[in-house]
TrEMBL record, chains A, B:
This is Glutamyl-tRNA amidotransferase. Signal peptide: none annotated. InterPro entries: Amidase_dom, AS_sf. It comes from Cohaesibacter celericrescens. Keywords: Transferase.
Amino acid sequence: MPNHSNLDPSGSLVERFLIEPIATGPLYGLDFTVKDNIDIAGRKTSYGNPTWRDHHHAPKYNALCVDQLLAAGGRCVGKVVADEFTYSLDGESQFFGTPRNAKAPNRIPGGSSSGSVASVANGVSDFSIGTDSGGSIRVPASLCGVWGMRPSLHRISEAGVMPFMPSVSTVGAVASSYEQLNSVIRVLLRSGGGLAVPLQRILVLSDAMEIADKSVRAAAEVALNDISSRTGVDLQTISFAQIAGDGASLSDCNENALRVLQSLEFQNTVGNWIENNTPEISNTFSMAYENVRQFNRYEAMNCLDRCERFFDAIQALMTCGTVICFPTTPVIAPLKNTLNSMEAVMDFYGRTMNITAFSGVGRLPEISAPLLTVEDCPVGLSFAAGHYQDEFLLSAVKKMLGW
Amino acid sequence: MPNHSNLDPSGSLVERFLIEPIATGPLYGLDFTVKDNIDIAGRKTSYGNPTWRDHHHAPKYNALCVDQLLAAGGRCVGKVVADEFTYSLDGESQFFGTPRNAKAPNRIPGGSSSGSVASVANGVSDFSIGTDSGGSIRVPASLCGVWGMRPSLHRISEAGVMPFMPSVSTVGAVASSYEQLNSVIRVLLRSGGGLAVPLQRILVLSDAMEIADKSVRAAAEVALNDISSRTGVDLQTISFAQIAGDGASLSDCNENALRVLQSLEFQNTVGNWIENNTPEISNTFSMAYENVRQFNRYEAMNCLDRCERFFDAIQALMTCGTVICFPTTPVIAPLKNTLNSMEAVMDFYGRTMNITAFSGVGRLPEISAPLLTVEDCPVGLSFAAGHYQDEFLLSAVKKMLGW
């Protein structure tokens, strides 16, 4: 169990406290933290923005996912930093600071579940719960070298979680080991063993490999070849155009489909609140929000059909027994204070979200495993399975790693 | 197109206005209304409670589902009554009145999408959008004799829809004809044609037939036998115990699973707000809420596992090509002012929700078709298909009715 000092060199904690478990169970003996867009009874939820925190009462109830963890034996040790309105992938919060990337301290941790990942990577907690819409669990897990999972869309209850992008957002978790991630996710999924389907097919998403830096791609290839040898299952390379037809690319999947849907939904949730409450917002968020605000809802409407068409195509591909693999992020964590030019931002966000959009559009469960090292920095290797095949994915990853 | 007078003998409208379509499309020429828990830009959303309305700003954006309808050619003609916090199945609102049950004016319309259904049944609009968690579209559609559909959980965007029970609530629609319902739902699902799977199997859920009044059951049997003759597909009777094993019943599915999950989630959404804002609430809602408030979250936690186990069992049953049928409600609409004893309330809610819980736990799409008449009053016959098989269900129902 991690050691709790009063200081927090991890920079991950917004508030430190102890909520003891309600019962023993599979998580007994494990400490967890909660991203600050998930309710803890009696404490205000900031959603990464001080005005939001000040304008809302403290909830009476814990989010349902928090109660599930307490009832399974987990102990809650604090609330951790979220990027502002969880609308970022970098983890540099003007209001709550930048949590420490334990394995690469001069680099950003990634976001928006920056505090969740940093609390685990720095030993403040064993695991943490967060949320993921455009990569908010997967990206910081990749950049900080911990395990992270975004389950199938809406498999975990969102009761008590701040509204964000209802057609895309999920609750998920990060942990310091596969075993802990597996235990936590199974509690949250509240499932039995799930189907005992054998691993039949390993696909490699070629577009994502090409988007990645050469060094990341090379590291991923080595790891994937190991997995193939270990399991005796051949790797089959497949492109997004082969999956979705019509010359479609991952960039269509991101820029012309998922990102538009996300922006439309963000207008409804946080956008309505901002327009009516004119909160103090950071410069970074202000620029991002200006883009959201300028989306013309009617011009953007046909992106919804595109999302659904891509979903159907991915659904047809991801039959049970199939896992698809790709680097979680195309890069190692950028150095701090380098995402300050439009080109740098566009490069990091554009390439990263072209990869993360695949599971977003597909509503897929995806696990980022801390298997790669490039320039002494961690990068995740991702494994995704079909929609609602979360239990199969958990078992398949274990098998692929020979455990 | 319905005739719009200044008066509203339907009692369905909260506010009358016109929002012209943005484009022509499959819904061009059709008028629709919007349940008052779904945002309309520039107008306050009441959620069926005046204090909620007064404590919240008017949204800047329409809910995404409203914009989808406008972009497909629909014209919005007003906001319609919702039961208080949509937490009721009777449609008698202390604050906004009881919309008229057009085919049985001395009887309740059912709720919580009471205004949606009444606006269609009384010719105020061609169709309406509402929400359904425990039957809030299906029940009033059944009791008022219109078409209604609850799609698969989360198939339609909930951006701009008031938070209710995140693991159960869906956006859906009611319409005066199958053709209109089909057009509206396909716009909202934003799907292509969907899979062209033939109808292979018609199941009849025996527990639901037994829960229904004898007269309702008899009418359902006649209609189902007609469907079997027309399609040449035999009816296969199946009980919930055969589906879920362990002697499970629909009452377990409702009382020991779905209803508990609903109560836990309602504590997080509306409950937190009520505890912090002490709104004026009606006597009826006050009694219902007191039950919710008394749920012990930790004692109730194992209901989540039961929900998931039932979901898995239903999922295994509802292979593609399968439709399961049952009366939407066990009764015709109760007479007004008769749900005023605890026994009467328990009988109506208990039996009704034992039936509606099936698709709730199964996350299934369900269509209530106005096919039955008992004592000169309408009752719906329901058809459900597997999770995410919405397009198949729409096609299968058309075929079953010989259209």
